[in-house]
Every structure is written in C-alpha cells, then in structure tokens.
Amino acid sequence: MNTQILKVPLTGDPSSDSALGHWASPNDLTTWIVPSTSPSPVLDPLRTAATHLRTTSTPVAFPTETVYGLGADATRSSTVRGIYAAKGRPSDNPLIVHISDLSMLRRLLPSSPSSPNSNTDPIPAIYHPLIARFWPGPLTILLPLPDPSPLAPEVTASLPTFGVRMPASALARTLISLTGAPLAAPSANASTRPSPTTASHVYDDLSGRIELVIDGGSCAVGVESTVVDGLCSPPAVLRPGGVSIEEIRGCEGWEGVERGYVDAAQEGREAPRAPGMKYKHYSPRARVVLFERGEGRKGWGGGG
C-alpha cells in the first residue's frame, strides 16, 4: 500500500500547543477539549487520521512524548489485528491502551458492583498518587479487565488486566479524542527493530505496511513508558521506561515498589504480565562491538 506522511504544522511544544486542545478545567484531567475550528491547518491532518482510524482496519502512526506509536481503535478486533500484521508482532504480546482523558478511562472500567450509580471512582485508589504526579506522561498502569470488556480481546492477549496511559503529547490526546475511542498503540516499528522517534524513522520501517504517518516532530522522551502493577502486593515495576523507580517510590503507597521485570515471562515460560516483557527488542541493522576495559585487541586500539 502507499504510505502518506501528514505533517502537523505545530509552532510550539506539542505537549502544550493550544491549537490542539485544552483541559475543560485547569489541573483536572477529566475532560480534554478539542477546538471546533474548521478548517484548521493543525487539526485537519488529525481529523483525516481520525476518520481513517474509525473507518478502516489499517493502523495509523502518530507521535507521543515517548516514541511514535502505531495506533488502532482498541475496541475493534479487526483494527487491532492490523497492528500485529503491520509490525509482524506476536499475537500473545499485549498492547498498551492510550486515552485522551480520565472520562474515557472510566468508561472502560466497571462501576462499583454494590451500586452501579455510586460516585466511587472505578480507578483503584493505589493509582491516584501516580496519576496526580505523572499523568499525562510516560507511565502505564495495569487495571483489571471488566467482564464484559469494551476492549477487543486482541489488546490484552487473554490476560485478565490491561495496560493504559494518558500521553503527555497534546497531539496524541487530540487524535484519540477525535477518533472517539481509546487507541491501542505499541511503538511504530517492525517487531524487534529500534523504536522510532521521528516520522522518517517510521516511514523507513513501515513504508508499504500502513497508509498514514502523522509527522508531529521529534519525540521528547525517546524511550517507552514505564509499566507498573499496583494490583499486586507489593506493587511492581514491570517495565522500565520514562519514569524511574526512584520517582515512583516517592509516591504514597509506592514506597516499597519492587522490580518485577526479571521473571519467568522473559524466559518464555509463561504469558507476559505487560508489553515488552517476553520478546527481544531493539535489534539495529548494524554491527555491534563490545569493548571490555583493559582488553585491548590488535587493530581495535586500547580499552577504555
């Protein structure tokens, strides 16, 4: 297929560009508002991409603050299967769900079983300190999968939980909002290749496999999100990323968080608890040479 790059002409920081949207209330992540201005050189490429996400089964590559993601409507199986096909990704490797605001997240979660109309927050209290400090941002939390679930089963790879985050990128949140659905979005690279941080990286890797790449400039963080599990005791970091374990330990209830990403899942003996735990990542097309200090070799120079 023909791969097209849609340039979003941002004038400032894509995490705060007011042309992309704003919060309904300051310091409140409940509702992300997208301007209704039409036409708009900033919003029109995102509207085109959102229409594509709603009406086709081919994923769209888009920038976040971490890396470029390969997004598809997380509620439709056909679109999620398109991610696995484009990346060549194993289907037992779960995907992270991206949301535009907390209202969208709460629609994915069950109401209180004792009172469906209660005001109890369906987001577990253990995550409230992390959300307050790190969202929007490069942190993914694990939540129990409701039954029935609005998410396509291909998102979770048969796990009883799903990973979700709110990107710091206003461009990403606006695309999600315009689509009207959460986006399942792993990194926009072929499976095992280095994660892309520019639109040209995506094009080099996935040209001919997808139809649209949104060019919103370079990603600020450059590594994937940290994945945490607060449903176990003690809580665990399942994948290192853009938020350090030391920062997480500074939050109430997370002082004793442990590293959980050295486990049997990495050795292929069981299903991974989160994305990025089972299969190898970051295999560049280049010769890699390991130098050990003090082990100089003829023709290679000294160690150091």
TrEMBL record:
One Pfam family recorded for the sequence: Sua5_C
A GO MF term: L-threonylcarbamoyladenylate synthase
Primary residence: cytoplasm
EC number(s) from the headed UniProt entry: 2.7.7.87
An example Gene Ontology biological process: tRNA threonylcarbamoyladenosine modification
Protein location: Cytoplasm
GO annotations of cellular component type: cytoplasm
Residues covered by the YrdC-like domain: 43-243
SUPFAM superfamilies named in the record: YrdC/RibB
InterPro entries, sorted: DHBP_synth_RibB-like_a/b_dom, Sua5-like_dom, Sua5/YwlC_C, Sua5_C, T(6)A37_SUA5, TC-AMP_synthase_SUA5
Binding site for L-threonine: 66, 98, 165, 185, 225
Keywords tagged on the record: ATP-binding, Cytoplasm, Nucleotide-binding, Nucleotidyltransferase, Transferase, tRNA processing
Catalytic activities: L-threonine + hydrogencarbonate + ATP = L-threonylcarbamoyladenylate + diphosphate + H2O
PANTHER family listed in its UniProt record: SUA5 (PTHR17490), THREONYLCARBAMOYL-AMP SYNTHASE (PTHR17490:SF16)
Function of the protein: Required for the formation of a threonylcarbamoyl group on adenosine at position 37 (t(6)A37) in tRNAs that read codons beginning with adenine. Likely catalyzes the conversion of L-threonine, HCO(3)(-)/CO(2) and ATP to give threonylcarbamoyl-AMP (TC-AMP) as the acyladenylate intermediate, with the release of diphosphate. Required for normal translation, by ensuring translation fidelity at the level of codon recognition, appropriate translation initiation selection and maintenance of reading frame. Also involved in telomere replication.
Family: Belongs to the SUA5 family.
Entry protein name: Threonylcarbamoyl-AMP synthase
